[in-house]
Amino acid sequence: MGDDSDGEAEEYLFKVVIIGDSAVGKSNLLSRYARNEFNLHSKATIGVEFQTQSMDIDGKEVKAQIWDTAGQERFRAVTSAYYRGAFGALLVYDISRRGTFDNVGRWLQELNTHSDTTVAKMLVGNKCDLDNIREVPVEEGKALAESEGLFFMETSALDSTNVNTAFELVIKEIYSSVSRKILNSDSYKAELSLNRVSIDDGDSKDGQKQTSRLGCC
Ligand code: GTP
Ligand code: MG
């Protein structure tokens, strides 16, 4: 019998949110990660969508429920509900549009205002395949991330550069910080299970991917 056989399945489900201006590539990063799909002509997101993706860490099944919403204010869902219970966040800008980088501070502020626990945050400079029309140097992204205490990575949802790495790094960071806290405190475990995102996921197992549309919540 394994050492985790205390009746509770040793399974984790962490909510991760993707934020950033419209058309920076949030939805394509998610579809690339969850389904290895990319859409050149994707429509602006309306409301909220999420996908659940599993990965194995230290022999444990860790599921990430990754939420994607509209960058455009008028299409966004209720802000507080979007951030509630998030353990990780990807703050995305488009390296070929400086304005999207200039707005990162605003997104970070919103995240900090609405998140209710320690959040593993990564700054993501997407569309690095567009190096020829780059408006934000890599060094600027790195410097901002350093000053704000964020992880940093440039990605391309189009050619897949660093997409899996970015999501997996955030999920591993969440897992290790949660494991550390569990080691240090039994009461945290109870707190964690309260804070868990519960979804009626139709009992999807074994890394099965799913898409749910919540419209506006
Ligand atoms: P909203 O839903 O409006 O907030 O936008 P979004 O951030 O979800 O952007 P979306 O993923 O819909 O992508 C916007 C456009 O950028 C689409 O035309 C994509 O094909 C394109 N795109 C996304 N990622 C990349 C990338 O890595 N490289 C390039 N060249 N284009 C990309
Ligand atoms: Mg979108």
Automatic annotation (TrEMBL):
Annotated localization: Endomembrane system
GO molecular function: GTP binding; GTPase activity
UniProt keyword list: GTP-binding, Lipoprotein, Membrane, Nucleotide-binding, Prenylation
Pfam families xref list: Ras
Gene Ontology biological process: vesicle-mediated transport
Annotated membrane topology: Lipid-anchor
One Gene Ontology term, aspect cellular component: endosome
Keyword match GTP-binding: yes
Similarity section: Belongs to the small GTPase superfamily. Rab family.
Protein name from the UniProt record: Uncharacterized protein
Lineage: Eukaryota, Viridiplantae, Streptophyta, Embryophyta, Tracheophyta
